[in-house]
Amino acid sequence: MKLPVWIWQYEQWPHFCWNDSNIISLLARIREQQGQLIGLMNGLGFDTQHRNALEVMTEDVLRNAEIEGMLLNPNHVRSSVAKHLGLDTAGMPEADHYTDGVVQVLMDAVQHADAPLTEERLFNWHAALFPTGRTGITPITVAAWRRGAEPMQVVSGAMGKEVVHYQAPASEEVEKEMKQFLQWVNQESSIDPVLKAAIAHLWFVNIHPFDDGNGRLTRTITDMLLARADRMPMRFYSMSAAILRNKKAYYEVLEYSGKHGLDITQWLIWFLQTMEEAIATAMHNVQRVLKKSLFWQTYASTSLNERQVKIINRLWDGMDGKLNTSKWAKMTHCSAATALRDIQDLVQKGILCDTGESGRNVNYVLVADLQD
């Protein structure tokens, strides 16, 4: 008897199992952190909440594509997300048709998270990702399950030295596999909603039902199910960004899980740890927003010029590199002497201080950052 090679070849597929004792404390911790983040977001004003969602959802779209090696225009993505969130887009470039379609996929998944996930809905998402009916210059089947006798494989390596990392079920099995998957996604379940998102991620990517775009749609389905778990029509943490930061491990754990039977404990642990990282990043960013708001309340009556306001905001929002006189002058298009006067004024007002580092140029940071 030939032993199974791929996860879907096991007799009990797709009846996954896992060791509860290995994940229960991690899941409980994540659910607590999830609640804290949602509580923080609910405490913010409407405008701040939507601005935060704008940044997170923009990053989610960008990183979801970047995992697959695709680079979208950040300004176009942000403009499209802002439009769909009902925010003011004045001064933003109008998004191109393709980018707007990609953003609409995430928006539909998240803003209508409780709507059933159907074959038609998935086909609509797939069509938005491939409006020309091609991946590059190669024609593909769009808005329909993959076809053809050739096996769907995930392969790397040069020609003649290819390594097959995974092989999906045959194309004639896809419709049956997807009916079972969609029924499970849509039915009420006793499984924790976060675990359900993790299982759906692994299940869908192992079916690999489309000619292309499977990874992006896998993560979109994950966002949809996490939005159900959060009970929020916006995203405040980005799983795609966290996955991108751990991309090598992501592919390694997917490959391992696709070859080692139906016990998916290792995958669930990896997914939950990555989600914990995503939430921690979001918590840090939200706390930063709150501190920035408190800062401007404190210094509301302090006299500051436009250059100073611009740089202070850049520092709060996360400036690349260190702030010094020459960088100030370059960013505000002023002379070095003017930059030095601006900085010294902020030092006197207790807003900036030097880092105490020796070197050609003195570096400065927000006093509020040192107090943290």
Describe the protein in words.
With 372 residues, the protein is mainly alpha-helical. The protein has two domains: 7-290, Fic-like fold; 305-371, Arc Repressor Mutant, subunit A. It contains 15 helices and six strands. It starts with 19 loop residues before the first helix and ends with a helix.
Key phrases:
372 residues; mainly alpha; Fic-like fold; Arc Repressor Mutant, subunit A; 2 domains; two-stranded antiparallel sheet; 15 helices
- Shape call: elongated
The CATH homologous superfamily of the largest domain: Fido-like domain
CATH class of the largest domain: Mainly Alpha
- Count of helical stretches: 15
CATH fold name of the largest domain, please? Fic-like fold
Query: What number is the mean pLDDT?
Result: 94
* Number of E-state strands: 6
The total domain count is: 2
Give the helix/strand class.
mainly alpha
Question: Mind telling me which CATH architecture of the largest domain this is?
Answer: Orthogonal Bundle
Give the radius of gyration. Answer: 24 Å
User: What is the string of helix and strand elements?
Assistant: HHHHHEEEEHHHHHHHHHEEH
Give the amount of beta strand, in percent.
Answer: 5-15%
Largest sheet: 2 strands, antiparallel
- For the terminal residues, how far apart are their CA atoms? 63 Å
Helix % is 55-70%
Sequence stretches where pLDDT stays below 50 over 5 or more residues = none
Adjacency order of strands in the biggest sheet: 1-2
